[in-house]
Predict the 3D structure of the following.
Amino acid sequence: MEERQRPTLDEIRAWPATVSVPEAAAALGISKTYLYDLIKRNESPVKLVPLQGRNRVITASLVRLLEGG
């Protein structure tokens, strides 16, 4: 199984307004399974928006978290 390389903060800032849960997990340095578990428990460290039946991570909230804000 191929491991995703962790993107830089500058790369994340250039992402679209929302990203998939696996992309966000890679940015956070955690597994997508763990992030999905956090979402199920309403403990997600990032803001989500439901789009087309799937959760999408709001990129701005991901950037804020990674900046330490």
About this structure: Residues 32-40 form the longest helix (9 residues). The two ends are 33 Å apart (CA to CA). The beta strands are 18-19, 48-51, 54-58.
